[in-house]
Amino acid sequence: MIPLFFRLRLATGVCSMTIGVMLILSGGRLAAATGPLAGAALQARLRERTSVLFDGNSLRDALYRLCENYRVAVLLDRRIDPDRPLRITLRNVSTVSALNGIAKESNASVAWVGSTAYFAPTEPAVSVRAVLTARESDVRSLPEKKSVKLRRVKTLAWSELSEPRKILEKIAEETSVTIENPDLIPHDLWAEAKLGQLDFVERATLIAHQFDLTFAITEEGDAIKLVPLPKDLKTAKETPAADGSPSAESQSTGAAAKIDASALAKKRFTLQVKEQPAGGVFKKLAEQIGLDLEMDQAAIEESGGSLSKRISFSVKNATVDQLFSTVAREAGLKFRRQGTKVVIEGK
After folding, report:
1. Nearest-5° angle of CA 55, CA 58, CA 64?
2. In the chain, is it the N or the C terminus that has fewer CB atoms within a 10 Å radius of its CB?
3. Taking the chain, what is the end-to-end CA distance rounded to the nearest angstrom?
């Protein structure tokens, strides 16, 4: 059966229909799709080289096909036209570069929320990080039992033609949270989706953020109240996300194109990260600045290091070398840069 599509629908790596001309060539063997990847497996997949050609395919279809082949969860914001024709050719690029290239061609940006690539207009893609940081801070201040429950990750999925209000209500119900004013979410119909592993704040934010809403959590953590996105968050410069997604004030989007070495030398970065996995921090920095990243996890572990070590640090007006050196030092690892390539090694 051919599914019905609506203009204000989300496109994810779950359902679509093939149109136009498309070619995807992978440098590695692709596993059968059994759900979105996460953690080290996702990092490895995003580094894989590929070549893509889309000639007249809809944005929805292009993202679906990449996600189907690479098991990368993608969410397309309701404010992005999913039927926009996409014409783009990318040769021998990483999977993450392919996603970034598609975003740029579609006047969108990518913000990584957990293991999900959130395609949105630039301003929402930037501000979602500040929102996540604020709400995760709220959760950490709750009673321990409730805080642990809200930080527990779970796959987010919904069926064809689902209403976002009901999706949010289900998210809340799964964590024994009530929503005081769900009617603030207007009626809409969204396409089927299956996203990655997300905690409560990430799941709820991916729904509410698309309507310029966030939420306040009660002191006991048993209820939330939807509220308009504060102006200072709506227009915020990029800040670290709750999953360790870093950012820099000098960046304008979460989907940086490949940067040249001379431009990189002029960049300065201000960043604060609290208790986030080092591997995720390295990955997000490289993605957003536009660098190639090489991390040999096996060699790092053999040296006694770990990419899963949680680190906290802050830098202000740092060069790219100072930024990566700080992350490496906190993680107990070594860093070296060769032009636009960053290599992370064990000590």
Report:
1. 105
2. N
3. 56
